[in-house]
Amino acid sequence: MADWKTATPSAEAFKDRVILVTGAGQGIGAAAALELAKLGATVILLGRNEKKLSRTYDAIEAAGGAQPAAIPMDLAKMGEAELNQLGVLIQKEFGRLDGILHCANGFNHLSPLSNQKLDEWVDMFRVNVAAPFAMTRALFPLLEKSPDAAVLVLGETHAFEPNAYWGGFSVTKSAQQNWVEIAASEWDKMANVRINLLVPGPIQSPFRLATHPAELKDSLPVTEAILPAITYWLGSASTGQSGQTLFFAKN
């Protein structure tokens, strides 16, 4: 486990695997989807912005990856019907699901608690916690049929280092760890299914640029630096390791 931050997967480490990536339109989600496709995975791209999903889709095809699927979906607004349809679609089109990478990130703005609204907190909770939970639950019948399935949730540093102005975002992201640990505990008899929380820390991404606009971009690891960690925890190398919170880079 000591080498997970720099582990090098084999060229076809994800051959014949189907992986769903949320937040696949930009940042870490887009980079991870492209990398998984290069390693042989069939990737299902999910995000709320169809144009951004199309860019990731085209990048995968240009790189010679298996034809992906792109599914526009707003996690702040989707409900049980959409989730059930997603499961039916994946079963019909692919017949299997071997992993979920939850990269979608619900964030409004930095502000004092006195300025934050109820609807903002509710939307962030839906995107950061409730939707990933409900999606994983809805797709679990497919995951448990896989010989080796992994769910990887991308966390955020401020969930563990609460500071002024991070408000609802920090609070909702902190709930991810509880969900991951509860799920891992409930799945502990199923050796073929695991779930973990990966906290990227300071890394180049559209989100980091939005929250730290004065920060020197070149002082941070590039987005692609985290890809070995993602492929490790989604791949067979992490079999048997579940319920962990993993920090890629520290502030």
From TrEMBL:
Annotated protein name in UniProt: SDR family NAD(P)-dependent oxidoreductase
UniProt superkingdom: Bacteria
InterPro entries in alphabetical order: NAD(P)-bd_dom_sf, SDR_fam
Oxidoreductase keyword on record: yes
Keywords: Oxidoreductase
Residue ranges the record marks as coiled coil: none
Family of this protein: Belongs to the short-chain dehydrogenases/reductases (SDR) family.
A Pfam family that the UniProt record links to this protein: adh_short
KW Magnesium (keyword) present: no
